[in-house]
Amino acid sequence: MNRPCLILFGPPGSGKGTQAKFLRDTLQIAHISTGDMLRERVSAGDELGREVAGIMKSGGLVPDETVYHLVVDRIERPDCANGFLLDGFPRTVKQARLLSELLDVQGISPLVIFLKVDYNVIIARLSGRRLCPTCGAVYNLSSSAPEEAKVCDLDGTRLVSRDDDRPGVVLDRLKAYERETAPVLDFFRSVNYPIFEVDGTSRPPVEIAREIRILIEKKYGSVPVSVSKA
Predict the structure, then answer these.
(1) Superfamily of domain 3-117+174-220
(2) Is 97 a catalytic residue?
(3) pLDDT, position 230
(4) Is residue 218 pLDDT above 90, yes or no?
(5) Catalytic residue (choose from 162, 166, 210, 219)
(6) Domain extents for the chain?
(7) Which of 91, 99, 188, 220 has its CA 20 to 30 A from that of 182?
(8) Which residues is 22 bridged to in the sheet?
(9) Is 158 part of the annotated catalytic residue set?
(10) Active-site option among 21, 129, 130, 213
(11) Alpha-carbon distance 195 to 97, whole Å?
(12) Which of 21, 41, 130, 173 is catalytic?
């Protein structure tokens, strides 16, 4: 069997990160989040981190070549030997073309999961999102609020909101998605990647994860699976 590559695709706030965590915990493949990688570089404060910090804060897109080389380096790590899941990449047609060439050379078999979510739901979802800077727990003020307002249930740390979750920035991110990222689906179709659309608007994340796992089994069949948590 070819090494699997799962591509979680959809607008910001569609639930890609949540689904990636479910799949990471049930499938023995690596989770590659370009957003997490970039935020790590910002936190490190190195030259690349300083360069992308301003871009991310304004909701812009980091240069294609920069993101691509980060992904290539990550794919070469040993934990990707059984396959990997891409969360937030590719975001442009140029990135998709570079990825396609890489997968062809390495004999890696892709599967695209397209999470479709209404934009009004996304704006409400992201603007209400809060994060714990200590443990990484994610809350939402409307759907999964902490027991004590503004405080993490797990470690008592005061919750924060990401700069790119502010309503105005969310709108800019959605416009950038329509302009730069939505056309990637047409590219996937042009190179005959299998694409499955999954409704992520209002269903519980666990239910969505079950559907995605069924689609993965249809495509790959023998992907190693650990004890299910979803």
Answers:
(1) P-loop containing nucleotide triphosphate hydrolases (3.40.50.300)
(2) no
(3) 36
(4) no
(5) 162
(6) 3-117+174-220
(7) 220
(8) none
(9) no
(10) 129
(11) 16
(12) 173
Residue 87 contacts residue 31 (beta carbons within 8 Å): yes
Is-catalytic flag, 150? no
Nearest Cα to Cα of residue 150 among 166, 162, 132, 135: 132
- Catalytic site residue from 91, 125, 130, 213: 91
213 is a catalytic site residue? no
Query: Between 40 and 99, whose confidence is greater?
Result: 99
Sequence-ordered strand ranges (E) for 12-171: 30-33, 84-87, 108-116, 129-131, 138-140
41 and 49 Cβ atoms separated by less than 8 Å:
yes
Give the Å distances, CA to CA, from 133 to 49, 138, 146, 160: 18, 10, 14, 7
Distance of CA 84 to the CA centre of its chain: 12
User: Longest C-alpha distance within the chain, in Å?
Assistant: 51
Question: Do residues 66 and 56 touch, judged by C-beta distance below 8 A?
Answer: no
Mean pLDDT (whole number) for 28-45: 84
d(CA 211, CA 167): 30
- With pLDDT > 90 as the criterion, what percentage of the chain qualifies? 38
Active site residue 91: yes
Higher local confidence (pLDDT), 50 or 85? 85
Strand locations in the chain, DSSP E? 3-9, 30-33, 84-87, 108-116, 129-131, 138-140, 195-199
Q: What angle do CA 66, 72, 75 make, to 5 degrees?
A: 140
Q: If DSSP codes are grouped into helix, strand and coil, which group holds residue 162?
A: coil
pLDDT(76) > 50: yes
Alpha-carbon span 57 to 209, nearest angstrom: 30
